[in-house]
Design brief:
transcription regulation, Rna Polymerase Sigma Factor, Chain: A, RNA_pol_sigma_r3/r4-like, single chain, RNA_pol_sigma_r2
Length: 188
Amino acid sequence: MSHEPPGDDALLRAVARGDSQALADLYDRHSGWLHARLTRRCSDPETVREVLQDTFVTAWRSADGHGGGAVGGWLWVIAVRRLADARRAAARAGSRDLLAARAPGTAPSAEEDVLAGLEYGDVGAALDRISPELRAVLRATVVDGLTTRETAHLLGIPEGTVKTRASRARRELRAALVALGPAGGAAC
């Protein structure tokens, strides 16, 4: 008789009940791909390790608040938010390089530049001008890199609504950037 391992939802319910082995199993199942994706966004291995650890600490503390979407998507959103927190902390500490431990002469990746703009630049200001529903779709699909299906599960809306909101959000974001003036237009 073969014993099927519990699914992500069952593991998360067990985590919500305080089962540390379920958290370890969830970690074993998801930490590898989370680490790989975080490494693409941040080249500092220590920061990636800390963000990964913070992600699972947050999952431990908030498992009972999971809204029922894909557990992997939920963990990714937590990880991206923890990475954004780390970047904000580094920026406050005066690090414009967003925690990137680079060899001398190397430049930030295009993705790091975009993420910095989302948090601190004209794009961030423009994002603040669009509705929260549209902003949530953009953050999930563009910043967090979730698929339409994952975004739909995360936000609890149909996939068609995700696509419609994403299209509308891009139009409104362009308009908001234009409204910010010449500097806003140059950021695109």
